[in-house]
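Check out a protein:
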Amino acid sequence: MFGEMEVRSAGQSLDVGTPRQQTVLAALIVDARRPVAIETLVNRVWDHTPPADPRAVLYSHLSRIRRLLAQAAALADGATARIERRHAGYVLDADPDLTDLHRFRRLAEQGGDRQRGDDVRAAALAEALGLWRGSPLAGLPGEWAAQVRDSWHQRRLDAVVQWAQIELRLGHPALVIATLPDLAAEYPLVEPFETLLMRALHATGRGAEALDRYSAVRQRLADKLGTDPGPELRALHQAVLHGELPPAPRDPVTTVGTVTPPTPRPRPTASASVVAPHWPDLAPADGDESPTAPSENGPLNGPLNGPLAPDHSAALKPVEPGSVEEPQPPKTSSRRVDAVGTDTPTTDPLATGTPPIRVRLRLTPRRTMLAALTAVVLPAAIGSVRVFQRDEGNELSSVTPSAPVSIPPSVERAQALFAAAQKLDQGGRAEEAQAAIVDAVRLYDELIKLNPDRNAPPLAPAVIRALGRAGVDFSVSEAVLRTWLVNPVYTPYPAISQMLLLRGWQLRAPVYLDVIVSNYESTPGITSPRNVADVRVDVLKAATLEGSNTRYGTQVRNFEQLLEP
């Protein structure tokens, strides 16, 4: 999956077929051992412009992939992967560890486990990074493939920073110096890379080179972004000048998750029925999907081949944990982020020619805030209705109504609720507008849980407008923001956006949404939320407060002072 798609079996590389067929295989691999609905496969392969009979063409691709996997099994003297048809969709039954993408995820999780020793974590991260052969799904067309690429580029950046921080703690600056320069050249605006390189150079007695790197990056940022290095890099520069470097952080806390925004991709406007039409399922339960199904590439000319299992060789292998690291208590300080943005997104999310978003990180005091969730009411349009009410402990409790409504959720209903909220807000009926927003957001949450690929894109513009009316600002173009909002599996933006709207906050000083997300994720001990129920409101308040003080200089200490009366 990293680089061009490849299927290997018994040391042989097989032909994976056309780019469209590779996309079908990739769409199954990313959810290995989990069913992928037909509609999801169609959307991933053809975006919003499927052929006249997409299921027939899809069955043809699946038949070819089955023959490919049979060929791989014959070479390996046994079945290693197969496609099964289940009620919920198609499942690629294969060990996820046979694919580099899933192995990377597992190793990166091991590297982020603070219960393991630093040597074990560094080895796991090094092995994960050694799997990288190039941009994921290179050469594959379509919006979904591009979103996968964006997500995994960010995961790679985070893993590199985490690995380098651990190696510096272990006293291995030479390893960092040998690895980071090439990556810093590939991502020239990622300041954490420069920070780590300067630390490593200073640790090996090459302080003059560290100062030269700072001068170079300062000039580069001035040329590309028209700004200075962030506070962390500036502070390190002063420390190198005085020869008084602070120790490397005990636990990796720097994140580069929003350093470069995903590339915007135009989405044609369409109704929900056009976005994901439901075609009747006429496929046989197993075997060839459709012996007479049309193909985009003509008749099948012999068996097609494709890579599923990369070689399991790696430069470094994790060793058994020798020591367990004690978990660190929460600190009273946290990361703060400044974002300098552009409304002209790059054509390549990692290109150096167009200024991406730059994130500045520095430590500031954070006040502890109590977690208190607001009272919200699920809309009657949602099939599984629950009514939430506040109890005396300021926590949410759920009450199941005695007569649940069975109206199925729909994109059209959610769009109508968002539009009604906008009209009520414009008419000065704030309380009624907030009630409509709560209904719309809860329905939106239900819809993206049911089918994010189909339901998130047509609702993203309404969410953006609602956030704007609440005072939330955007340092990126709407096209870029949409790519974040339609990826609930890969980004926390939908969950955090929903909570902002559910709370009904009206901000006096607008705060960039990407700054709020970055501040939230940089809080020690916080897991990036993928569901509105996972958002910690006290942390979200603190992240918004910091963003206001950072971007707009409000200098308020109490979050409530940010809100309109």
In short: The radius of gyration is 25 Å.
